[in-house]
Amino acid sequence: MELNNLEDFKLESIPDGLPPDHGRTQDAAGLIDATMKNFFSPFRDLVSKLNDSIQVPPLTCIISDLNFTQVVAEELRIARICLWVTSSAAFWGFLHYSELIKRGIVPFKRLSPSLAHTFSHYNTNYSILVTRNALQNPYPKQNCK
User: Fold this and answer.
1) Where is the composition biased (Basic and acidic residues) (predicted)?
2) What is the Cα–Cα distance from 142 to 28, expressed in whole angstroms?
3) 43 burial type by CB count under 10 A (0-12 exposed, 13-18 middle, 19+ buried)
4) Of 16-30, 34-48, 54-68, 122-136, where does mean pLDDT reach its minimum?
5) Cβ(124)–Cβ(80) below 8 Å
6) How does strand 61-64 pair with strand 79-82?
7) What average pLDDT does range 22-46 have in this prediction?
């Protein structure tokens, strides 16, 4: 990540609680489980440390995709925006969903698909809805590759 021009930008890390020899990239489920179990207290401590510092202005908003940050935001009275990320494959499906319906592909016949419930994003301060028009190329005459 190129941050040379962002003098006021600083990255902070939070320990994940996993042993150093843990294959984080090989065991995504273990990493997600460790994140949900081990990040709450270190995250709250980091936000408190930043808010108590005279070197940086107080935090006014937390943008995150993990639900435990909502509890910290509420405790410390900080706004939170829930960033719900998705894969490019899922995005492509959402983008063409109306076409899938028009062609009769969706709803699936003789299948009862379900979505796994991973995180509950309840009680967030803000929701962001991105529409298809917002995602279209604002410069249609330029070739975006």
Assistant:
1) 7-20
2) 38
3) buried
4) 122-136
5) yes
6) parallel
7) 83
User: What span, in angstroms and rounded, lies between the C-alpha atoms of 39 and 86?
Assistant: 21
Contacts of 62 (CB under 8 A, 6+ apart): 47, 69, 72, 73, 78, 79, 80, 81
Give residue 139's pLDDT.
Answer: 46
Residue 80 CB: number of other CB atoms within 10 A? 20
Instruction: Record the pTM.
Output: 0.58
Distance CA(105)–CA(87), nearest Å, equals 21
pLDDT tens digit sequence for 67-81: 889 999 999 999 998
Q: What is the DSSP letter of 140?
A: T
The 3-state DSSP class for residue 82 equals: strand
Q: Give mean pLDDT, residues 99-117.
A: 68
User: What are the backbone dihedrals phi and psi of residue 80, each rounded to the nearest 5 degrees, phi first?
Assistant: -135, 135
Structure tokens given for 144: 């975006």
Quote the CA–CA distance of 31 and 29 in Å, as a whole number: 5
Give how far Cα 25 sits from Cα of 17, 32, 90, Å. Answer: 15, 11, 21
The two tokens of residue 71 are 């509890």
What pLDDT does 1 receive? Answer: 55
Structure tokens at 139: 């410069």
